What does this fold into?
Amino acid sequence: MATGYHPLNELVDMIEEPSASLCRKVLADNYDLFSKAIGSTHNHQAWEGGYLDHLTEIMNIAVLLYKPLNEARPLPFSLSDSLLALYLHDLEKPWRIRKNEKGEFESIPQLADKEKSVLSFVEKKLEEYGFVLTEEQWNSIKYAEGEKSSYSSDRRIQLPLAAFVHMCDTWSARGWFNYPAEENDPWKGAERQLSW
It folds into this structure.
């Protein structure tokens, strides 16, 4: 049976301090930008406000999956770790995706390279707000979308937390790409996040 759907503020409250307060500050400082940002240019939550809907969706997926996986075999990370990584995994997106002169969404050239320029941008934002991440938390942000060109058959690149973050992100982006629904979402309490 599914858990109730949590709004973004409740999900942030599940993150340990001081990270929860830093997450709230990032959102408060950038709320106008974040609330208008899309989740992606086409593939998932591609509507105004979709960025916050995507964050809320993936964090709810983490809450849904964490307990049964942890009961089956203890996970080497906390729910708080996963929620923090999910909250931060697309931090560049509100700055990266803009409408062009034709009214189409596209990545700005300075942040078009997800594996290079985006990571540098995210690192700077994390430093600006005072986040101190563990190696595994940073790995989960870096590899939230998979190992891509970093893949190696000789060593494990994506650590367990990153694999969990990737699983939640992938399901939202490819499985439930149109959720939360505009109305009558089947997941009790799920709705698009229009206010903090």
